[in-house]
Amino acid sequence: MGCQLKKVICLFVLFLTISCRNHGKKPNPSTKAFYNMGVESQMENKLDSAILCYKKAVEIDSTKISIYESLIKAYWENQQPTLALMLIKTAPKEIKERSSLFILKGITLKKRDKLIEAMEEYKKVFAKTPKVEYIHKKNLMEFIGSLILQTVIGEKELALEAFDQLKENKLTASEKKYVNSIEHIIQDYEGDGYLGITGNYK
Known about the structure:
Blueprint: H1 2-19, H2 29-43, H3 47-60, H4 65-77, H5 81-90, H6 93-96, H7 99-111, H8 115-128, H9 140-152, H10 156-166, H11 173-188, H12 193-198
Helix pairs in contact: 1-7, 1-9, 2-3, 3-4, 4-5, 4-7, 5-7, 7-8, 9-10, 10-11
């Protein structure tokens, strides 16, 4: 269950990233090479090497949000939330204004026991993100992600009402099972931001 919910949040963060990402600029080959080496090192749990590769990629091209996201998460895994915050603070303005960075900053702040500040970051995301309406199964993950964010910022009851309305739609058996499982987690949520839902988001 935990892995499934983490997947939902990862996809929602990815949605926020893609929705405001600039298109048309081809990636620098060196940037891509360092980034790929970083991903490979991180998968092998060689976090110091991964961080070094991501930092090299950022030095070459500081406009790629995906590199910042990966570097932040590598810092988390390496128990270095302070360095993650420093990275966010020194990132270019166009990067810091991305919705996904607000969420990652919030999670990082919570990892440093600064929940009040973290909640402010989540509220900024919720305020600037267009309202997501359920259309069909293709945007179910996106819709659930928006309800999780709504829950995190303190609108749990409204999110649960949306779950009730969602279940009035024609959902497959697997979709109903999935929706019910997430709904139960939302019902049990008692605060603490994203980490209060996932336990240990990475």
